[in-house]
Specification:
Helices cover 37% and strands 19% of the residues. By secondary structure, the chain is of the alpha/beta class. The strands form 2 sheets. It has a 7-stranded mixed β-sheet with strand order 3-2-1-4-6-5-12, with helices on both faces. A 5-stranded mixed β-sheet has the order 9-8-7-10-11, with helices on both faces. Helix 12 links the parallel strand 10 and strand 11.
Amino acid sequence: MKILVVNPGSTSTKMAVYEDEKPLLLRNITHSAEQLAPFGDVTEQQDFRRQLVLDELEMANIPLQFDAVIGRGGLVKPISGGVYEINQQMIDDTLHGCVMHNHACNLGCLIAHEIAAMIPGCRSFIADPGVVDELSPLARISGSPLMPRICIWHALNQRAIARRYARGIGKEYEDLNLIICHLGGGISVAAHEHGKAIDANNALDGEGPFSPERAGSLPAADLIRLCFSGKYSEKQLLKRIAGKAGLNAHLGTNNMREILERIKQGDEHAHLIVEAMIYHVAKNIAAEGAVLCGKVDAILLTGGMAHSDYIVNELRRRIGFLAPVYTFPGEDEMEALALNALAVLQKKREAKVYH
């Protein structure tokens, strides 16, 4: 089976071509601020990015002949996990304001569907978007009925890592209780109970541990006072939640390599802030142990920061009492997307209907 994978991000579009499980082409097309400046809304970038993908295929002499095109899922309505065939409802929701956030990942379904429509018999999918919501009824309730809990998290990578771990020990993902923590620009922590993430944080804009770019949970009353202080506009305050927040706000950079080097050179303030981040991550992981009533088969650490022995060892020191800790550094969203599409094409999994 020939599969094209399209994964749009804020400043790049990743693309890949797979033949069954084998990657034939991997590209990361970067977009400068100047290139993106003419576009007002992110959905206006659709034609621009689609053409770049087609150009890369032409330069690599790969004909436009695919069994499926799968895109990174957007931030549309909350849905259960799995692979979804792209339909008109999903496209309409993406284009006409039903998305939860205006993020480049919303282009994934639009570009995948458009390219697939150019190829006779080709199907188009998304898989495990960030709005996968399988929360238990208890997890949805917050202290205010005005603000029920929602989750926006690294569903695609977490579920791919869960399946990889399960395969490695000869079991199925659905047989296990796992706590998985994605350590990236944002940090998501989820309790996976027999194949469903029954608790996860809103890692995009306001819950859980702080991270290189996110503020995480904040003192609510202080945040309200800041909103009415007149010092910041709504746009500026949202940036203080996601973007100019977390390590970026405390240390002036979100570059973990740079920060870890500063710690190695004796920067005690950087050491304090990173230790605080690790402390809060560990605390959130331990909390998911309570969600699973202590029945935890393993804790899996993934994402870019899982490359750091220092961060992993400090986390293991704090959470190792709960369950064995395993690391899966980085993230392979392209492979995860390709394998999800392949599973449907090979009839090992059924594509769901978005509505």
